[in-house]
Design a protein that fits this description.
The chain has 300 residues and is mainly α.
Amino acid sequence: MPFHKKKWIELLLTLKGSVIPGVWQRVVVAMAFSLIVTIIYQSGLLWIHQPILASLIPGVVLGLLLVFRTNTSYDKFWEGRKLIGGIIISGRSLSRQMWVNIPEKTPTDTEEKKAAILLLAGFLMATKLHLRNENIDQQLQSIISKNQYLELKEVNHIPLRIAKWIGDYFRKIYDLNYIDSIQLSTYNQILDLMVKDETSCERIVNTPIPLAYAIHLKHLLFLYCFALPFQLVAELSWITIPATGVISFALLGIEAIGLEIENPFGYDPNDLPLDKMCNRLLWDIEELMSSDSRKEYLVE
């Protein structure tokens, strides 16, 4: 069920897709430390109330760093969504043009055209596998020939090889005078756009947040969360423990969100539903080719 259709209370109690599983251990550690600080303060052994620590790491500075981290990650997430959407749009557009405009003079022509159109869905499937650094799955294998499957097993860049096969098909039907030079150029331009979008997705995967920035942010979060009990213990006493937990959860959760959506092509609950997108494009193409509006073979 899409999250916008869920009731408020359902979202409040939902763990799947939240950052709780990823940060609860660190929050518990911060609360355990605040328990130790509170016990020492209540025993009167040491005067450990240090409000001056509030200025150790200004909240505004930490907040700006977290906002920058989250915004940068969301920009990558949204760009990834637009790029995958661009591949789907190009695949639908090109499949429609191929199905409607490329003539079929023999049953073999029809089978070759269907195979080439299915490769458009295969390109998106291959993009998904390539971004996840996975091997050919059963879905992709089911829409290609045995020889193509064996060839893909030997290549490093599966989407590019599938794009080559589609381009080879365009060249073949052009040489057979099934399409003119304008159609050939148009088809190749759309295919180039698909390759461009796939390459841009690679850029997102291969360009993480700079390591120095990520490490520095973790250091600041660690210092801030462990300095909290010293600031709060005199005013809040035992309430220091849950207060530290709430504040730590808020800050660590924001960092965890940025980390999870930084690469939108994986399997995290908040990543893009690439499997569903691949299925949708494949279904659309199969529905297009199964329509009764297609003309019968033109027999010479």
